[in-house]
Specification:
By secondary structure, the chain is α+β, with helices and mostly antiparallel strands. It is built from 10 helices and 14 strands.
Length: 304
């Protein structure tokens, strides 16, 4: 059968049959592709550095100011020069990743829709989770600063406002280093919270007090049940998978980048008669790099 079902995705359409799924590859592939893109925290938050051919060379913590500022110059005098200030040069290599989904002839012939839909969902979730893990691994391997939370945010004695404010203020402390003007100045714009922290964050008493007398009070989380879109000037993001107990305050576009040697691709289903199954595969080849670790700070231990 080649007639596609166009209402809803195949992964959640109770009216679909396995034969229809296999007969509409564009619908199946688009369903998988769109889900992965929707929850791609790397692409949503960080800088797209464009395509690569297998590796990316970058300089970490490039200074934002010249080595010397303006100087007083007399008439006819030579104008003094300055030199580029470089950071640590690094090279990151792309790694192709992929996973293939198999739908057996028996699943088609016996219309095992429940199994097939579960398999599609599991593949989508696995790709999203692994993309988040890749980002997290890059951040943890970099030299992003950290500070301790006052307490786990769901615990007695926690002070969410103070923890976030301290993290924000730490960016200002970078303005002077050993009595010298810093070469790097960042302004945080994003707060990334661990998955499962919505309740602890939104119901925190001092978060409530922070908004209680302000213009956002009628729409706060204690009333609507939704997290604040912004908090203390930061965009609040809770990735679908963020398997860590720490929050991250950062200037997102300046903290990290991604570069695709091969963008996300979904192909199939391919009939493999020798093994009597249909194969749909998801592949990508991506680099994630942290080029300005000074543009972020961890708040450690916000989740017990």
């Amino acid at each position: 059968m080649t007639t596609p079902i166009t209402v809803g995705g195949f992964s959640d359409n109770p009216e679909a049959t396995v034969e229809e799924i296999l007969g509409a590859p564009k619908v199946l592939n688009q369903d998988i592709y769109d889900y992965i893109k929707e929850y791609d925290v790397v692409e949503q938050l960080f800088t797209d550095a464009g395509p690569n051919t297998g590796s990316v060379a970058f300089t970490e913590n490039v200074a934002q100011f010249a080595e010397d500022g303006l100087a007083d110059v007399s008439e006819f005098a030579e104008i003094p020069t300055t030199r580029v200030v470089t950071g640590e040069k690094k090279v990151v290599f792309a790694q192709k990743t992929g996973r293939a989904l198999e739908i057996s002839y028996e699943q088609r012939d016996e219309n095992r829709l429940y199994d097939v839909q579960n398999a599609i969902t599991q593949v989508k979730n696995s790709v999203v989770r692994d993309n988040s893990r890749s980002l997290l691994r890059s951040l943890q391997e970099s030299s992003v600063r950290d500070q301790a939370a006052t307490a786990a945010w769901a615990a007695t004695g926690a002070d969410v406002v103070r923890d976030v404010a301290t993290a924000i203020d730490s960016f200002g402390e970078q303005l002077t280093v050993e009595d010298n003007e810093a070469a790097l100045i960042f302004e945080p714009d994003t707060l990334i919270l661990p998955f499962g922290m919505l309740g602890a964050f939104a119901s925190s008493e001092n978060v409530w007090k922070h908004y209680a007398n302000g213009p956002l009070a009628p729409n706060d989380a204690a009333v609507t049940g939704k997290v604040y879109p912004t908090f203390m000037g930061l965009n609040v993001v809770i990735p679908k998978w963020w398997p860590i107990k720490d929050a991250l305050v950062c200037q997102a576009k300046d903290l990290a980048f991604y570069s695709d040697a091969r963008p996300l691709t979904v192909n199939g289903p391919i009939d493999v008669p020798t093994n009597e199954f249909f194969r749909t595969q998801v592949t990508q080849k991506r680099i994630v790099g942290v080029h300005n670790p000074s543009a972020g700070v961890w708040i450690k231990g916000v989740k017990a």
